[in-house]
Amino acid sequence: MLKSTGILAVDVMTEKNLNPKEKQRRKNIVETSKENEEKFPTGKETKENTKQEPKKPIQKKPVVKKEFALVNIKGVPISTKYSIAICKFIKNKKIDEAINYLEQVILKKKAMPMKGEIPHRKGKGMMSGRFPKRASEEFIKILKSLKANANANGLEEPIIVDAIANFASRPYGRFGRTKKKRTHIQIKCKERKNGRKKNSSN
């Protein structure tokens, strides 16, 4: 008969039939099995040990807030000429104010002031202008992402400080007859500083 003792199986016999060498061999087997159990505990014991150990708290890295918010987008499929005019107009304005004006441009209620041989439009301080719908839609998306960046950095009443539009690499159209319109746009805003205006005395 064989009897299982944890790791090894030992045959059970009467002590009368055993030799002294056989007795010693069996003692050695039992001792080695106990030592192995101490060195290599079962899965239940390891789980209990892991539960008893306290977990170390995860340390989060401190978020460094900036004094400005920046959006830099490359290869926007809009006219560079219209982008330059829009950048010039939205500079030194609040983000919400610029978005509201561009929404009026899309509805053709207000015109975007531009320079060149362009028809004249009605408006305060405006000579000529147009209604760039596609460029206005793209700029609204960019300004909304800029507003989200400003809120993440904790800026209060951010004002657009820089607005730059440059030519991007223009890929050729079908059969190489035309070139597509591509523009790089970068807009930067900062928190408004409450400064007193100097009174001009005559």
- CATH architecture term of the largest domain: Alpha-Beta Complex
Low-confidence stretches: 6-10, 196-202
- What is the distance, rounded to the nearest whole angstrom, between the alpha carbons of the first and last residues? 120 Å
Count of structural domains: 2
**How much β-strand is present in the residues?**
15-25%
* Radius of gyration from the alpha-carbon trace, in angstroms: 39 Å
Tell me the number of helical segments per DSSP (H or I, 4 or more residues long).
5
Order of helices and strands: EEHHEHHEEHEE
Helix content: 25-40%
Oligomer: single chain
Strand order, largest beta sheet: 3-7-6
Tell the overall outline: elongated
CATH class categorisation of the largest domain: Alpha Beta
Helix/strand/pairing category? alpha+beta
Mean pLDDT: 81
Tell me the CATH topology of the largest domain. Answer: Ribosomal Protein L22, Chain A
Quick tags:
202 residues; 21% strand; 2 domains; two-stranded antiparallel ribbon; Ribosomal Protein L22, Chain A; disordered C terminus; single chain; 36% helix; alpha+beta
Structure description:
This protein is an alpha+beta fold and 202 residues long. It has 2 domains: 1-37, no CATH class; 68-191, Ribosomal protein L22/L17 (Ribosomal Protein L22, Chain A, Alpha-Beta Complex), CATH 3.90.470. It has 5 helices and 7 strands. The strands form 3 sheets. Strands 3-7-6 form a 3-stranded antiparallel sheet. Strands 1-2 form a two-stranded antiparallel ribbon. It has a two-stranded antiparallel sheet with strand order 4-5. α4 runs antiparallel to α5 (133-152). It starts with a strand and ends in an 11-residue tail after the last strand.
